[in-house]
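Lecture notes, continued. The same structure-token format from the folding unit now serves as the input rather than the output. Read the line below as a description of shape only.
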């Protein structure tokens, strides 16, 4: 199951990279919890769509996902943590960074959904 959760996480990031909201939405349990440099919040689908659309015009590229560690809690819940290296291009300005991510996945109606995601920027 741990391999499956990592593959779901990669599918989620690929959908973000290709700006594919339908795939992201199909992998998200709403309301979801998101934590990062802007704080902690519970996000419903409409708010998530606004956040997603605010990235329009910004290119995201996944450079690497490494050091994944996952744990199955039961048949319907799993957690994963990993490092990710990302590159953003905004108006031809490139910036890259690494962060540590965690996600909690739950299985509902035979589908795995991300219920919580955190991102912590790593020091350079």
């Amino acid at each position: 199951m741990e391999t499956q959760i990592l593959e779901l996480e990669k599918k989620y990031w690929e959908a973000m990279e290709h700006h594919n909201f339908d795939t992201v939405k199909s992998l998200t349990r709403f309301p979801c919890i998101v934590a990062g440099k802007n704080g902690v919040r519970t996000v419903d689908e409409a708010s998530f769509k606004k956040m997603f659309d605010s990235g329009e015009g910004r290119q995201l590229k996944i450079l690497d996902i490494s050091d994944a560690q996952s744990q199955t809690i039961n048949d319907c819940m799993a957690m994963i943590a990993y490092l990710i290296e990302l590159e953003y291009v905004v108006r031809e300005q490139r910036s890259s960074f690494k962060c540590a991510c965690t996600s909690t996945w739950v299985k509902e109606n035979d589908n795995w959904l991300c219920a919580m995601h955190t991102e912590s920027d790593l020091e350079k």
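Point for the exam: The helical segments are 2-17, 21-26, 45-53.
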